[in-house]
Amino acid sequence: MDEKLSGVQVGPLLKDFMGKEYVTGTANISAKMTAHGLEPLAVRKSLNGHAAFSFTNGTVNGVNIGLLLRTAYAAYKKLPPPKDEAKQTDFAALSGSAKVVNGVVSNDDLSAKSPLLRINGKGSANLVTDTIDYRVEAGVTGAMTGQGGKELGQLNGTPIPIRITGTFSAPKFNVDLQAILDARVKQAVEQERKKQEQRLRKNLENELQNKLKGMLKF
Fold first, then answer.
1. Are 146 and 116 in contact (CB under 8 A)?
2. How far apart are CA 28 and CA 171, in angstroms?
3. CA 33, 37, 40: angle at the middle one, nearest 5?
4. Long-range residue pairs from 19-23, CB within 8 A, at least 24 positions apart, any chain
5. What would the pLDDT profile of 156-190 be if each residue is shown by its tens digit?
6. Chain centroid to CA 75: how far?
7. Cα–Cα distances in Å, from 97 out to 42, 51, 53, 75?
8. Predicted model pTM
9. Kindly report the CA angle at 73 between 70 and 77, in degrees rounded to 5?
10. What is the mean pLDDT of residues 135-144?
């Protein structure tokens, strides 16, 4: 296969190939792939090649990153968890490239944008064993619209790592938000300590200068 698709709806395409609409939206895709076999599994085992893709105005189904972050934030603050929502993440644009070796898809340049989030990702997915090993870094933007914007305002500017493992049918998401927020607190304390040291040093310098001026008076 050596194909380019422009302006196609990717959801039905993925459903035909993988049995589920993992991503929806308008897609531009280029792919050079080789495979052989009569059954879908055999085709996936022998799949090799590379591809590039860009999607606009769609969703990633199976995960709501905004909800993941708000749930982790509520746990950190010892607050009730947020109400459950549809397991999907809306995006305005999503792009990347992939290398495929014997059914294992590797990607290191995933980029997605939404009104609330900026997302970068890299990792691999095994189409043969149906397993995922992926890392996403989500940054909350200053825009207080979109999925969970109001609750996530305090995370603005903080890149948050999300580890994705498990399988396509049962993915597992791990958000280590506590370590990040603890680090922010330590950083704020350190910054305040430096400000206090600078203020004290300046006060001492002023005091010494005043004493020196008094000593020089005749």
1. yes
2. 26
3. 85
4. 20/61, 20/168, 21/61, 22/60, 22/61, 22/62, 22/168, 23/55, 23/58, 23/59, 23/60, 23/61, 23/94
5. 777 788 999 999 888 898 887 766 767 667 777 77
6. 19
7. 23, 6, 6, 35
8. 0.71
9. 135
10. 76
